[in-house]
Each structure stands twice: as structure tokens, then as C-alpha cells.
Amino acid sequence: MSEIVIAVSPVSPDVAQTAPAPAGPVPAGPPPAASVWSRWRPSVLAGFVTWATGIAIYYAVTAVSWLPVQDLSAKAGAAPGTLHGLLDAWNRWDTTWYLIVADSGYTYDARATAFFPLYPMAVRAADAVVPGGSYEAGLAVSALCCLAALILLHRLATELSGADDARRATFYLLAFPTGFYLVAAYNESMFLALALASLYFMRRGRWWWAGMFAGYASGTRMAGVMLGAAFAVEYLRQRGFALRRTDGRLRVSWPSLNRGVFAIVLVPAGLLVYMLYLKLTFDDPLHFLESQKSWFHDGFTPPWQVVMDVVDLIDRSEPLYGPDTIRNIANLATALGVLLLLVLALVGPWRLGAKAAYLVVFAAVVMLMPLSNPIHSYYPLSSVWRFALECSVAFMVLARMGRRPGFDRAYTGVALALQGAMIVTFVQDNFVA
Q: Which end of the chain has the smaller Cβ count within 10 Å, N or C?
């Protein structure tokens, strides 16, 4: 007699007592609204609490930022006497250019084409409903984008690393020394929110949504185009791409592709639309690159040469703790530190593994762009430690390191202390990043 063996998987009592599955195929469709909200609710709550706490701290630090000023009658150090004056203390540096574009367009000053259009377009739209002027509208847009970015980071980190790490990653991002730029009237939080939305939908395999948000990101900053590299890496991973060594030879296992691959054409859409506008307006689709020369960007330089140049500047700087020296040290340490964290995202005790490879690819490009296109001035890597905010996977690695209470306390204390000093520097109209 032949023997029939049936393998039965162990079933928990909870599962065993549930109703049997209905006969026939289960109709496809979107998940119920209740299950979507239950998945997103912790991220919305964590993001909102972090965001609201940050806003309150920024208000408090700004309010006391004039205590070290000796001559309050001086124009640069005049203390604000109203809430509006306190808000206006954040109207600094790049904000001016975004407001010029929002209020007057690019023809007012052709140098403004270095600042991509989506953020000032949103500011112009918000100005119609937000009380005040375009500056207040810019603050509102940035604050809402910051909230969206924190929620998206928490959701993505939860899926990759768990809820506890997600909570730390969200806090570590806003606590980073330049984290306050996420609520300033800059395009930083809009770009980060759009990039995280694209990266999240890539992980979920929703390629057309991922391509759409990447297209918006490329209309916010040129780095958005680099989401295409992340798209390709994650798409191939999910479709089963693999490298195998067989019989001493390296073989490539190519996956079958589906129509989702075509969504990658949406990634540069924002940039291409902007280039079309520049062609029609200035007869030069690359006018934004020409404008960069006004900020002393002058083409490609090998990253290792830039690093050596910065080290040399630090070595020759006088005084040792002068502003330019501090900026160079901060930017170089940030660039090298983030690159190290990207390596640790793939190998070592805090690794996230292959599932985070696409995040690493995007973050690496974000760091390498300023490292290979430096500013020819006293601080070649200017703003790098602001661009580090876009490297979300680096904060996920830091969150894993934060499982040790000693690291968590050290990061929190140092980061918040530095951020407080940077806010005071910023509102006093001194350059930070």
C-alpha cells in the first residue's frame, strides 16, 4: 500500500479559531480604510509630536537669541518686538531668492534660475490663503512639508527597521544640527518629503506613484533626478535580479520586467519641464547651471581632490576657530560621516541589508554631488551638512546605534546643543549652511 503524507504547519490557537476562508478567489482591491489608518496612525502621531516639539523649541530659542547681543540698537542685532518680528528673523539667505521667484518670477533676476520652481510655485499658491505675505506663506509650506517628511520617514523606517528605530530616526533627523532648515522658508523639507514619498512607494512596489513623486522632486531640486538610480536598484531587486558565481564565473540572473519599469520616465519630468521653460524664456535650457556660477560653482572636480583641498584650508586657516574653519570642519565631517553611515547601512552590526540598498544609492549621490561640484571659495563644501538631511537612511543607521542608551543620550545632547547654537547664528543673519 502506498503511503500518503500530508504536511501540516503549526497553527496558533488564535488563527485556528478564525472562520474558514471563503471558497473561490478573493476579489482584488485596495486594503480597507481601517487597515491603512491602523498602519499609518503611529507614524502620524510620532511625526506630529516630533514636529510640534521642534516648532516649540525653535520659537523658544529664537526668542532668546538676542541675549548675547550687547548693542541692541545696532541694526544687525535689533531685537524683535513682536511675534511678526520674531518670525521675520528667519527670513535669511536663500529665502530671499525663493521669495523673488514666488513674487516676481525668474525674469526679475536671471540668477534666480539656480533655484528650482516647485517650492516658489507652492509659496505663490499658498500666499492666496495664508495671512501675511509670501514669506509667511513660505513658512507655512515648509512647516507642512516638514510634518509630511517626518511622517513618511517614520513609516519607511518602521517597515525597514521596526517602530522603536523609526521613532529615533524621526527625532534624530529633526535634532540634527541643521534640522531647523526643515521649517525655514527653504525648499529643503519639500524636497525631502517628495523624495521620501517616492522612496516609500518604491519599497511598496507602487512604481507609477514612485515615479510621480520623483518627478515632483526633480522640479524642486536637481538631485531629484537621482531618484532614478534608486528606482532602478529597487525595481531590479524586487523583480529578482541577482549576481551569482557559478563554476568560477560571475553570472547575472536577469528578471522578467513588467510595465511598472516604464514609470522611471516620470523621474526627470520636473527637471525637463523646467528646462523647457528656460529654453522658451532665456533661450537656454541649462540656464540654471549658468546661474550656479554666481555662487562660485565652476564644474566638476574629483571628490578626493575636494577633500584634500578642504583639509588644506583647515590646516592653513587663521584663526583656528574662525567661522570659515568651523564651516569647513563641519561640512567635511558631515560628508565623510554620512558616507561612513551609508557603508554601515549595508555591512556591520547596524546594517539594514540589501532591502536598503536603493536608499543608500540615492543618499550616496546626494553626498557626492556637492563633493564633486564644490564652491570655489573659503568653504568649498558649503551647505553639505544641510544636504545631509536628505540622506534618510543615515538617520536609520543612527537610530540602530541609538539602541544603546549611551549613544542615544550622546547624540541627542550634542545634536541639540549644536542646533541651538546654529539657530542663534542663523537668526543673527550669519551664514550657517
A: N
Residues of the chain with pLDDT below 50 are: 1-28, 75
Give phi and psi for 214, each to the nearest 5. -65, -35
Pair 209, 266: CB distance under 8 Å:
no
**pLDDT computed for residue 293 by the predictor:** 80
Q: 250: Cβ–Cβ under 8 A, 6 or more apart, which residues?
A: 243, 244
- Three-state DSSP state, 375: strand
SS3 73: coil
Angle in degrees, 0-180, between the axes of helices 357-372 and 323-344, rounded to the nearest 10: 150
Predicted confidence at residue 10, as pLDDT, reads 39
Is residue 344 within 8 Å of residue 351, measured between CB atoms?
A: yes
Its pTM stands at 0.89
Radius of gyration, CA atoms only, the chain: 24
One-letter amino acid for residue 395 of the chain: F
Grid cell at residue 389: 538631511
Largest pairwise CA distance in the chain = 103
Residue showing cell 533661450: 283
Angle at 166 between CA 164 and CA 170, to 5 degrees: 125
Does 27 sit behind a cis peptide bond, omega within 30 degrees of 0 on the bond before it? Answer: no
* Distance in angstroms (rounded) separating the CA atoms of residues 192 and 198: 10
Q: What is the pLDDT of residue 31?
A: 59
What DSSP letter does each residue of 236-290 carry, written as one string? HHHHT-EEEEETTEEEEEPPP--GGGGGGGGTTHHHHHHHHHHHHHHS-TTHHHH
Lookup: cell for 396: 536609520
Return phi, psi of residue 159, to 5°. -70, -30
Q: Measured between alpha carbons, how far is 147 from 142 in angstroms, rounded to an integer?
A: 9
Identify which of 126, 274, 96 has the alpha carbon closest to the alpha carbon of residue 190: 126
Report the alpha-carbon distance of residue 158 to residue 258 in Å, rounded.
Answer: 28
Report the distance separating Cα 297 and Cα 290, nearest Å.
9
For the chain, what are the domain ranges?
42-427
Q: How many Cβ atoms sit within 10 Å of the Cβ of residue 338?
A: 23
> Is 194:212 a contact under the CB 8 Å cutoff?
no
